[in-house]
Amino acid sequence: MKKSMILIAVSALILSSCASKKDLVECQTTNKTLNESLQAAKEDLAAKNARIASLEEQQRGMQQLLKNAEDKYAKLQASLDKSLTNASQNNISIEKLVDQINESNQYIRHLVEVKSKSDSLNMVLTNNLTRSLTKEEMKEVDVQVLKGVVYISLADNMLYKSGSYEINARAAETLSKIAKIIKDYKDYDVLIEGNTDNVPISKTNIRNNWDLSALRASSVVQALQNDYGVDPKRLTAGGRGEYNPIATNDTEVGKQRNRRTQIIITPKLDEFMDLIGEAPDTDK
């Protein structure tokens, strides 16, 4: 009788242990699934926040442009009002002033149209680029539109070998996608800008961080030209060393953010010069 009771108790313990292990495995599986869903949600939220920030920046730029236009119009209107009041005491031609106001209004409308067109092109360019990059690439590539200029920021550990200006083999696919976008938008110039943290470089063939940042920018320029066929006349390489930080150099995370290469895509400067030349002369 005693032996039977002992056997029953042992069997119960074994069954209980098995059930507990099964529950534990199920909990671990559920926890893993929830963590993966949480991480995916965080990445999606970060991408949407970046998109919102970019749109807000463009909106502020347009509002500033319109404000400047309104200010200029107000000044011209005030000048006209003053001329009407003092028409008998001066030699200002009211008709000429009205013509100047009309010319200014046409120029303002033209500026708004050009700005809207530029913003639209920048948005299409940015969307095409972000769609071409994988989720993994987007973790090391930051794309923003600031004040009408497209900034593509690439982490140095993705682009270069450690402490070097030689480009990593794994950066080739990402650079090829960026190069395709650059080639599709032929009316834009491209500045490649190298940046470092404030830790002094200790290579015998590189004098300082100025050298390192400029050499890294030059490596990207030559890769775009030689490997992907970008017109070198559109490319400029520049280094800013440690003097253009976007984060503190007091932490490793901050230093990592500062070690970056930026591909800056801008409308051609001569087109803006032509636009300025079209402005009406209001001093006549």
Strand content: 5-15%
Q: What's the story with the biggest beta sheet?
A: 5 strands, mixed
Gyration radius, in Å: 30 Å
> Helicity level, as a percent range?
55-70%
Q: Give the N-to-C terminal Cα separation.
A: 121 Å
Secondary-structure element string: HHHEEHHEHEHEH
Low-confidence stretches: none
Topology:
Elements: H1 2-85, H2 94-132, H3 135-138, E1 141-146, E2 149-155, H4 156-159, H5 172-184, E3 188-195, H6 209-226, E4 235-239, H7 252-258, E5 260-267, H8 269-277
Parallel strand pairs: 3-4
Antiparallel strand pairs: 1-2, 2-5, 3-5
Helix pairs in contact: 1-2
What would you say this structure looks like, in words?
This protein is 63% helix and 12% strand. It is an alpha+beta fold and 284 residues long. Strands 1-2-5-3-4 form a five-stranded mixed beta sheet. The chain is extended.
Annotation keywords:
284 residues, alpha+beta, 5-stranded mixed beta sheet, 5 strands
